[in-house]
């Protein structure tokens, strides 16, 4: 199972010519430039992004004059302003992308929500004054190699629990999104919960194959690295189970 999760996560990147074992480490100019070139190559070779599971339903709801809860994060994780810094963070971790650069990218991707960006900047300032490094707590602090290392070093029982919970949640959400076309109130309920932003938009894909496997693998990694996220997914599962048994969702 450990190898299967790691392979599912690595496979889409290998298709873009990224070999995790070949990512140079260290803070030398040569290593930094090599990681930057790999990130640029990943963007050149990337396929069209998967569906935006926030923007697409919001557009449909707006056309139908159906109100949905406001987004609590950037408008789209596939916004062009985020792709460059995001790719470099995947390859080299947070040390290759400064906080100010990332905050500027978030601001460019979310021009209509300056309050959220200022909240992010304020949290960083407060942490710095307290001597804390928020970047070190981020799942991508050490890039893709760090994520794979988390899978390789995970306790076997803990890994099995993460795979089970993430697979079950993925299946439940796929069914609910199909029902939501006829019962839009389901979508409103799903979006009201913070896990819509923390999981659905960044770690869910309804399709089978490489994309879907990688999405589940990414969720497994978040489950392993972030206990609070895992607790949130467990709570969200209870919500989804309740929606699935409602007569309107059948």
Folded structure, characterized:
The structure is a single chain. With 250 residues, this protein is mainly alpha-helical. It contains 12 helices and no strands. The protein is 67% helix and 0% strand. It starts with a helix and ends in a 6-residue tail after the last helix. The protein has helices spanning 2-15, 29-45, 55-63, 80-92, 99-109, 114-129, 143-153, 156-180, 184-192, 195-203, 210-225, 227-244.
List keywords for this structure.
mainly alpha
What overall form do the CA principal axes indicate?
globular
Beta-strand content estimate: under 5%
User: Which bin fits the share of residues in helices?
Assistant: 55-70%
**pLDDT below 50 for ≥5 consecutive residues: which ranges?**
none
Strand segment count:
0
Question: N-to-C SSE series?
Answer: HHHHHHHHHHHH
Query: N- to C-terminal separation?
Result: 33 Å
Which sheet architecture does the biggest sheet show? Answer: none
The secondary-structure class comes to mainly alpha
- The Rg value, from CA coordinates, equals 19 Å
Q: Output the number of helix runs.
A: 12
Mean pLDDT: 83
In short:
The protein has helices spanning 2-15, 29-45, 55-63, 80-92, 99-109, 114-129, 143-153, 156-180, 184-192, 195-203, 210-225, 227-244. The model has no long low-confidence stretch (mean pLDDT 83). The chain has twelve helices and no strands.
Topology diagram in text:
Blueprint: H1 2-15, H2 29-45, H3 55-63, H4 80-92, H5 99-109, H6 114-129, H7 143-153, H8 156-180, H9 184-192, H10 195-203, H11 210-225, H12 227-244
């Amino acid at each position: 199972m450990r190898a299967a999760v790691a392979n599912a996560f690595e496979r889409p990147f290998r298709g873009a010519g990224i070999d995790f074992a070949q990512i140079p480490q260290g803070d030398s100019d040569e290593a930094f430039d090599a990681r930057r070139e790999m990130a640029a190559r990943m963007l050149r070779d990337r396929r069209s992004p998967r569906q935006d599971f926030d923007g697409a339903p919001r557009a449909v709801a707006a056309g139908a004059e159906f109100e949905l809860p406001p987004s609590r994060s950037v408008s789209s994780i596939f916004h062009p302003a985020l792709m460059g810094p995001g790719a470099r963070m995947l390859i080299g971790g947070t040390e290759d992308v400064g906080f100010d650069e990332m905050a500027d990218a978030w601001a460019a991707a979310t021009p209509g929500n300056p309050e959220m960006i200022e909240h992010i900047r304020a949290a960083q300032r407060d942490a710095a004054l307290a001597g804390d490094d928020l970047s070190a707590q981020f799942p991508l602090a050490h890039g893709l190699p760090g994520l794979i290392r988390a899978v390789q070093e995970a306790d076997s029982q803990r890994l099995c629990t993460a795979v089970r919970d993430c697979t079950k949640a993925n299946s439940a959400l796929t069914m609910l999104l199909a029902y939501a076309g006829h019962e839009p109130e389901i979508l409103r309920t799903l979006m009201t919960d913070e896990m819509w932003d923390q999981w659905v938009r960044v770690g869910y894909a309804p399709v089978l194959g490489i994309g879907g496997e990688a999405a589940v693998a990414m969720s497994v990694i978040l489950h392993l690295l972030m206990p609070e996220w895992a607790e949130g997914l467990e709570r969200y599962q209870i919500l989804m189970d309740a929606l699935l048994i409602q007569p309107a969702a059948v």
